[in-house]
Amino acid sequence: MPKTKTTNPEPVDREMREFEAALLRSVDQAKKGVIAASHTPSAIQARRAGRPVGSTKPARKVPTTIRLSPEVSSAFRATGDGWQTRIDAALKDWLRTHSASLDAGL
């Protein structure tokens, strides 16, 4: 017969008691209106849907589709989240260093 690992139930019981106590405090505060004061009809009406004013950047990026070589794509993707932002930064850097030669060619 395989051995079964016995666990001490006390940490779970302690955690459950703490959770229940916090839940009861929350209910008590809601009944008194301490926490739920921000959920009055006037407060809900005052808050508008959508992003807060000023939370968007004034110069938005333009969605586009480009074809990249597999080496470039895999190299940038391997750097993790934000790889598209890093490609954007690399292209901006290229523009800064090559803008004079581009102007001369036009």
Describe this protein's structure.
The chain has 106 residues and is mainly α. It is built from 4 helices and no strands. The chain has helices at 10-32, 41-46, 70-77, 83-105. It is flat and about 75 Å long. The N and C termini lie far apart (84 Å). The mean pLDDT is 78.
Keywords:
106 residues, mainly alpha, 57% helix
Quick one: overall form? flat
Beta content: under 5%
- End-to-end Cα distance: 84 Å
**Pairing-aware structural class of the strands and helices?**
mainly alpha
Q: Uncertain regions: pLDDT < 50 for 5+ in a row?
A: none
Order of helices and strands: HHHH
Question: Main beta sheet, described?
Answer: none
Q: How many helix segments?
A: 4
Record field, number of beta strands? 0
Helix content: 55-70%
Rg from C-alpha positions?
A: 28 Å
Rounded average pLDDT: 78
Architecture blueprint of SSEs:
Layout: H1 10-32, H2 41-46, H3 70-77, H4 83-105
Quick take:
The chain has 106 residues and is mostly helical.
